[in-house]
Each structure stands twice: as C-alpha cells, then as structure tokens.
Amino acid sequence: MIIKKLALLTIATTLTLSSCIKNDIPYPVVELGITSISVEGASGASTIDHANRTISIPLKENTDIRNVKITDAKYTDGATLSKPIVGTFDMRYPQYITLSLYQDYEWTITAEQNIDRRFSVVGQIGDTEWDVERCIAKAYRRADFGLDTVTVTQLRFGPTPEYVCFRDKSELRDFTSGKEPNTLTTIVEAYNRSEIWRLIVEPREPSVDITRCTAGSQVIWIAATGIEGTESGFRYRAKTEEQWHEVPEEWYSSKGGKLELIIRHLTPRTEYEVYGYAITDNGEQHSNVRTVTTGDIFTLPNGDFEQWYHNGKFWNPAISADTEWWGTGNQGSSIAGVVLTSPLESLLRPGTPGSKCVQMSSQNAILKFAAGNCFVGKFDKIVGTDGLVNFGRPYTERPTSLKGWVKYQQGTIDCVPRPDMQGKTPNEGEPDGGIIYIAVGRWDAATYGGTDISPVQVDTRNESSFFNSKNPGIIGYGEIKYDASCDWYEFNIPLEYRDYESKPTHIIIVCTSSRYGDYYVGSSNSMMWIDDFELCYDIE
Questions:
Q1: Quick one: 447 and 328 in the same domain?
Q2: CATH number of residue 94's parent domain
Q3: Are 212 and 222 in contact (CB under 8 A)?
C-alpha cells in the first residue's frame, strides 16, 4: 500500500512539475509567400501582392472560369500548404490557401475576367444592366417607342465558338409576348453547359442622368445616361456667371444611350455648374444640376532640370539635399564607381531656354547591370549589391498629360537575363527599350513599404515589388515606350483615368533608358536624354 502511495505521489509530482515547464525557445519569424504562379488561359502575368498576401489572375475572355488550371506555383522553401495550389479550380470564387512553417500565412487567389457581353435595342436609355449570376440582361427603352416592335441591335454573351445563343436577335422583337412582363428568354450554351438567359426591355420616361462629374484643374469629366436617337447635350457655367455655355460636339467621346465628354478650358479653383438635356416630343428635359470645383495648378519642381548639386560622389537633380524632388540610381551605382544620371550642357534640345538636360546611361557595373534612370522619389539605400528605391511625392491633382522633350539611343542587350526570367524580359542580342511613364494614385507606406513622402518601395530583390501599370493604387496612368532610337522631339503622354471618385495622394514619374533594369537586363549602349517636363491640366 505504501509503495502504491509513493508511486502515485511521484506521478502527481512529475505531472505538476511538467505543467510548470515553459517553452522559452522562441520560434523564428519566417514570412511565407507565393512567389510565382502559372495558369492556363491567363491573359497576362498574375499580380502578386505580398503586402496583402493576394494573387489576382487575369483570364482571357474565352477561358472557362469554372475550370481554371493552375499548372505551377512556387512558394517559400519549407512551407506546407493547407491544400494544393496546382490543380483545376472554379475561380468564380476566391481560393484560400494557408502556408505554414513556424507561423501561418493565409493567401487569397482570385481571378479577373472581362467578357464583352452585349444586349442593346433601338431607343435605349443608358447602359444595359447585367446580372451574370442570375443570367439577366436588362435594357431601358423610351416608353413612347413601345415594346411590341423592339429592334435588338446587339446580342452577344461571350466569344464564339465558346458561347452559342440559340436565338437570333431578329427573333427577339415582341417583348409583350413572353411569359413574364417585358421579358423574352434564350438558351445560351458554353463549355457544354446550358443557361437560360432572361432579356428584359423596360420602358422609361426619357431623361438624361449624370452618373459621373469629376473636376480636374481645367477640365470636368462627365458620364451620363442619354437617349439613343434623341438630340441631347450638356451646358455649363461658372457659378458666378448668368449665361450657360453649350458643350461643343468635338468634346464628346461617345453619344447615344451612353454620353461621355470632357469640358475644357476652365479656370482653376473655380466652382462650376453642369446639367444635361434631351429634346423629346414632350419638350426639353433636364438632368439635375451638378456642382463641382476645379483643382489647383501644380508645377513640377525642377521640371526644366536646370538645378543640380554634387555631393562629392555623384550628381543629384536639385539645388541641395533639402530640395530634392527627383531621384536617380546614382547612389546605388556609385559603389561600383559608375554614374548613371548626370546633367549635360551639350546635345541640348532645339529651342530650349535652359543650359542643361538630363543624360541617362545604362551601364554594366562591376557586379550587375544598372539602367540609367530619373524618377520622382528618392533612392533609399543599398542592400548588398541590390537597391531599395522609393517612388512618389505628395500630389492631389488630376493632370491630363505629361509633356516634355526626349532623345533616345537604343542599344542591343548585352546583359544575359537570369534563367528564370525567360519570357519576362528580352534575351541577349535582342533590342533594348526605354520608357517614360506617369501615374497618380493612392499609396501609403504601410502597404507599399516606402515612406509617407515616397510610399512605393521597389526592392530589386523582390519581383513582386516592381512597379507596373497594373498597380492597384493607380488612379490615372500613361506611358510611352521607346523601341527605336529617336532624335529630340516633344512628347505628350495623356493620362487615362480608372477611378474618378478617389482623390490622388501621390504622383510617380519614371524615365529609364532600359525598361527591364529592375531585372538587371539591358544594354550598356542605351541612353536617354530628357528635358523641360511639364504637367498639363487642359486639353487642346
């Protein structure tokens, strides 16, 4: 009995002691990520956002989104997956994958697909409304046109031969004859699946509705629903004026059921009123009056590139370190004794009032290729033989274009791409190419790794950080690529806006003589000269 009691006491004591033992050995923090993904039927490279742990796959129009095949994916060595990445997935819905090692990291994979669907009728008002999940397309038509003799002008559910519609648009005329009010149906077959689509034509009293009214500094962008086949237009005035001005025909980019236009030659920092109208049998009908205020004019600091200082090692495009607005890669290349970007007092552009231009020379440094560059932002620091560059400066306006002068000398690529760059960059012996691009957008340092002043960090060790035209923070973007040598000429890069609701926080401008320089790919003979950059806020 005593032996049993001692044994139980020993076990209890052992359990008590073991419950008090703490694991004080810290686990290392290893950030886990997906670094590349290959997808059949993709229309381009997937966007991998390491900051938010998301991947967006762009799909071709004729790819079956319910059966998307991911053929390959690379991720952090040693990580385990909650489920396979490679396989066939229904990409109508996000795919969630957790990578685990010492910690868990959840990644989300989504797909984007733009299918050009069309359903339109004579006398339509505004755009067709699509409910793809419920297979409904609805068009609004002038009430005085009736629904028993509808002329369908466009009918397309997807690319042929993948999508087959079993009714011709000429058969869809009497929208009073269906089982449901204002509705006719058709069977659409795609990828061996059949869907019953409901086509609805709904009567609406003629009207013009402004759906978007966004002011720049000297322009106003307008989008509205109009009335196809009806005389319509817009009028505007400064709020202090009595007289309304008619928008000229040449300022429209589209008319009919969808109206888009840009009102021009306005005064900055001024309140304007705008309304649309349509002339019908019942007289002239007006939309509500919209009021907007134009923005300010921001002039690019040192846009003529006349100001430079030398810090003892390399040139910088500013009067002093305190006034820097433009940056270069000179700090990174200086460790190899190479100067990429410098002021030049010869080879000036014709008619320049200044005495300097910028010369950018791509060069093979001691360890790596370096592209000649000049950008809005600041070189951050050198990490080993790589560089961290922060793009952007604070900016809240909406320019219409970037204007300037450029001269380009194209070289032949003499830096061999890494094997894993096959297909992403040109190969040795192929022509190099330059680029100038501008972007305004909303970026923050917490998401993009830079600073509050220059928030978008490009890390040459991390391909996912490279800035491109698909960056999700972009509001407006424009570019010119140079695939051949050219003498001095004046360029004008218009910005195309993707978001008319959000206000920009920063501006990015990048010029480089080798546009694949992020990958250390290019030609040591490529050069670019730039001068007299100017932001434009009006449209001639």
A1: yes
A2: 2.60.40.2340
A3: yes
Q: Where are the beta strands (DSSP E) in 300-365?
A: 309-310, 315-316, 326-327, 341-344, 357-361, 363-364
Do residues 491 and 348 share a domain?
Answer: yes
Distance CA 523, CA 364 (A): 8
φ, ψ of residue 507 to 5 degrees: the values are -125, 145
Q: Tell whether 511 is covered by a domain.
A: yes
SS3 label, residue 2: helix
Residues in Cβ contact with 438 at an 8 Å cutoff, skipping those fewer than 6 apart = 399, 402, 477, 478, 479, 493, 495, 507, 508, 509
The pLDDT tens digits for 87-112 are 999 999 999 999 999 899 999 999 99
Residue numbers of the domain that contains 279: 209-293
Distance CA 49, CA 476 (A): 20
**285 plus 342 within the same structural domain:** no
Please state, in angstroms and rounded to a whole number, the distance separating the CA atoms of residues 501 and 495: 16
CATH code: domain of residue 235: 2.60.40.10
Q: Is the domain of 397 the same as that of 269?
A: no
The total domain count for the chain is 4
Series of mean pLDDT values for 10-residue runs along the chain (540 residues): 39 39 62 91 89 91 96 93 96 95 94 95 88 94 87 95 94 93 96 96 83 96 82 93 96 83 98 90 82 97 96 91 93 79 95 96 80 94 83 98 98 78 76 97 94 94 87 96 97 97 97 92 95 97
DSSP assignment of 448-464: HBS-SSS-EEEETT-GG
Its pTM stands at 0.74
* 379 falls within a domain: yes
Considering the domain architecture, whether residues 468 and 532 belong to the same structural domain is answered as yes
